[in-house]
């Protein structure tokens, strides 16, 4: 892996898991701010026969709306596709 560039306290290109907690991100379209609870979560289900093929083995991001407390889960790759931006706490 190439050396990561630094943007504030976060390493660009190394994954946002290197940002200091709490990790705040804004949805660019809605403007909603979320706190990342985990960017390395796993999903598991033994009830659906095709679940493993579809969902297991991928990293998932668990994030919480800082105003409502609603918790969401999204594939980490999708979370980092450009629809969210890091929020500088300063």
List the helices and strands and how they pair.
Blueprint lengths: L4 E3 L2 E3 L10 E5 L5 E9 L9 H5 L4 E6 L5 E5 H4 L4 E3 L4
Antiparallel strand pairs: 1-2, 3-4, 3-7, 4-5, 5-6
Overall description:
The chain is mostly beta strands and 90 residues long. It has one domain (21-86). The chain is 10% helix and 38% strand. The chain contains two helices and seven strands. It has helices spanning 51-55, 76-79, and strands at residues 5-7, 10-12, 23-27, 33-41, 60-65, 71-75, 84-86. Strands 6-5-4-3-7 form a five-stranded antiparallel beta sheet. Strands 1-2 form a two-stranded antiparallel ribbon. It is elongated, with a radius of gyration of 14 Å. Residues 1-21 have low confidence and may be disordered.
Short description:
With 90 residues, the protein is mainly β. 10% of the residues lie in helices and 38% in strands.
Report strand %.
35-45%
Rg on CA atoms, Å: 14 Å
How are strands sequenced across the largest beta sheet?
A: 6-5-4-3-7
Total of domains: 1
Count, helices = 2
- CA(first)-CA(last) distance: 30 Å
- Percent of residues in helices comes to 10-25%
Assign an overall shape.
elongated
Q: Unreliable runs, pLDDT <50, ≥5 residues?
A: 1-21
The biggest beta sheet is recorded as: 5 strands, antiparallel
Secondary structure category: mainly beta
Q: Give me the strand/helix succession.
A: EEEEHEEHE
Strand count: 7
This entry's quaternary arrangement is single chain
Average pLDDT, rounded to a whole number, is 75
């Amino acid at each position: 892996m190439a050396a990561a560039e630094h943007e504030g306290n976060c390493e660009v290109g190394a994954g946002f898991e290197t940002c200091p907690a709490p990790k705040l991100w804004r949805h660019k379209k809605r403007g909603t701010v979320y706190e990342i609870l985990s960017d390395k979560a796993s999903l598991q289900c033994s009830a659906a026969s095709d679940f493993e093929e579809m969902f297991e083995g991928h990293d998932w991001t668990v994030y919480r709306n800082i105003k409502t407390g609603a918790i969401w889960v999204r594939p980490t790759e999708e979370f980092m596709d450009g629809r969210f931006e890091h929020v500088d706490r300063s």
